[in-house]
């Protein structure tokens, strides 16, 4: 049995990203940029007005100026401005040759073809050419996650086919002869399959879809047939332990996988199996729902983050316990489902009650995991892995 830290190291050293693809802007949201991007031109491309008003020749204010025409946005000002002259200008329009300052229309008096400026701002209301970026300036770093702001930057530099990391193709197999679909009434000895929906939701929260999810009985031949394929990540739910009907490790060996670990000093989630075959990654996840939840957050998520190039989230906050279930000391490195809340601007953590790792209901409202290492104090201030923003500060 290895420690969780060793298990995470093995995942880091055996999992790489799933490769690079080129996509259109409309499909780039949520992607991880696979290249550094630089400005293709000066931004702004020329001096531009930041206000609706008048651009004057030179910068001699106050004074009265002869209005010789106008420059709407989208036009190129052919007329150079001389001293004593002004042009009507609009926000975003190009400053003509000779233009030294824009005065807001609220600060002028217009009389026929003359405009008189008495009060004026220190601000010249001109966005200067190249003041935001010059050709070759880095505007987005490799590894940036593309949200709305980043898509705007791509649009700005005309990068309409960005290279992003390919999202991994994920196959999930829920094994267990006792499993029935959630819309079925379980017969004697049967239970509804909850892990398929649990994992689908956990993966969605990372922006990765499980493209193929099936249920299969504890039959090694059937499991192997469904497991074979050209996916990037295979998740086998159940069959991780040592019972006569636990076929996870056997399936992976039969398919030519190398098993890197099959037991972690972890509670819950001890019989977690991690294996690879070339670039393909597989986990057999201990069947209990809380074991699924914990193994996902402490180990599987790291592999997904690596495959998809996502930033790694493994930051523990020291939080004071407030109420909830007393934490029971355990020889294993334990993770307790918990809820973090905010009171008077301070974060607190409340461990939830979970009798066994089979108790799906105890996952309700969980937004954190409390880590209690073997021999560490299980009260007072505890190490807390925040999984989601507490509602009051979200
Ligand atoms: N002799 C030993 N027995 C067990 C050990 C051990 O070290 N020695 N480890 C225990 C621990 S810890 C865990 S965790 C479990 C893991 O068992 P498996 O991965 O083999 O899982 P199963 O036996 O298939 O299922 C366990 C439990 O979870 C239920 N289950 C399975 N799949 C689903 C699903 N899709 N949705 C809802 N519930 C599911 C299943 O019915 C079982 O109740 O092994 C211990 N045993
Ligand atoms: O490791 Mo198991 O997940 O405790 O029940």
UniProtKB/TrEMBL annotation:
Q: Name one Pfam family in it.
A: MoeA_N
Please list the GO biological process terms of this entry: Mo-molybdopterin cofactor biosynthetic process
Q: Does the keyword Lipid metabolism apply?
A: no
Name what cofactor the protein needs.
Mg(2+)
Which UniProt key words apply to this protein?
A: Magnesium, Metal-binding, Molybdenum, Molybdenum cofactor biosynthesis, Transferase
User: Which EC number(s) does UniProt give?
Assistant: 2.10.1.1
This protein's pathway reads: Cofactor biosynthesis; molybdopterin biosynthesis
User: What GO MF annotations does this protein's record show?
Assistant: metal ion binding; molybdopterin molybdotransferase activity
Identify the residues that the record assigns to the MoaB/Mog domain, covering every copy. 171-306
Q: Which GO terms describe its cellular component?
A: cytosol
Q: Which domain of life is it from?
A: Bacteria
Task: Name it.
Answer: Molybdopterin molybdenumtransferase
């Amino acid at each position: 049995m290895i420690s969780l830290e060793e298990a995470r190291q093995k995942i880091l050293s055996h999992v790489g990203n799933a490769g690079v693809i080129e996509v259109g802007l409309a499909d780039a949201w949520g992607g991880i940029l696979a290249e550094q991007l630089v400005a293709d031109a000066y931004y702004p491309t020329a001096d531009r007005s930041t206000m609706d008003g008048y651009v004057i020749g030179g910068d001699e204010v106050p004074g009265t100026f002869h209005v010789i025409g106008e420059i709407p946005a989208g036009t190129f000002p052919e007329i150079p401005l001389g001293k004593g002259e002004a042009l009507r200008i609009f926000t975003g329009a190009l400053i003509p040759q000779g233009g030294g300052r824009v005065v807001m229309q609220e600060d002028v008096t217009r009389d026929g073809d003359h405009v008189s400026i008495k009060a004026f701002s220190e601000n010249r209301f001109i966005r200067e050419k190249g003041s935001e970026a010059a050709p070759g300036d880095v505007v987005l770093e490799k590894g940036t996650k593309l949200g709305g702001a980043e898509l705007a930057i791509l649009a700005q530099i005309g990068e309409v086919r960005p290279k992003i990391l390919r999202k991994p193709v994920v196959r999930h197999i829920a094994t267990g002869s006792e499993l029935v679909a959630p819309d079925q009434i379980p017969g004697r000895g049967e239970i509804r399959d909850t892990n398929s929906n649990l994992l689908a939701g956990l993966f969605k929260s990372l922006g990765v879809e499980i493209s193929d999810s099936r249920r299969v009985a504890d039959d090694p031949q059937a499991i192997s047939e469904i497991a074979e394929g050209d996916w990037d990540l295979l998740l086998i739910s159940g069959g991780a332990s040592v019972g006569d009907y636990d076929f996870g490790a056997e399936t992976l060996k039969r398919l030519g996988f190398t098993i890197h670990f099959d037991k972690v000093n972890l509670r819950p989630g001890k019989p977690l199996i991690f294996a690879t075959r070339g670039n393909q990654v597989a986990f057999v996840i201990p069947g209990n729902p809380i074991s699924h939840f914990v193994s996902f957050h402490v180990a599987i998520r790291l592999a997904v983050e690596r495959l998809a190039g996502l930033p790694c989230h493994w930051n523990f906050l020291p939080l004071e316990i407030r109420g909830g279930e007393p934490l029971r000391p355990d020889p294993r490195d334990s993770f307790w489902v918990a809820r973090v809340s905010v009171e008077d601007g301070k974060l607190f953590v409340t461990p939830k009650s979970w009798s066994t790792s089979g108790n799906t209901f105890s996952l309700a409202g969980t937004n954190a995991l409390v880590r209690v290492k073997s021999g560490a104090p299980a009260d007072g201030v505890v190490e807390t892995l925040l999984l989601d923003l507490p509602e009051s500060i979200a």
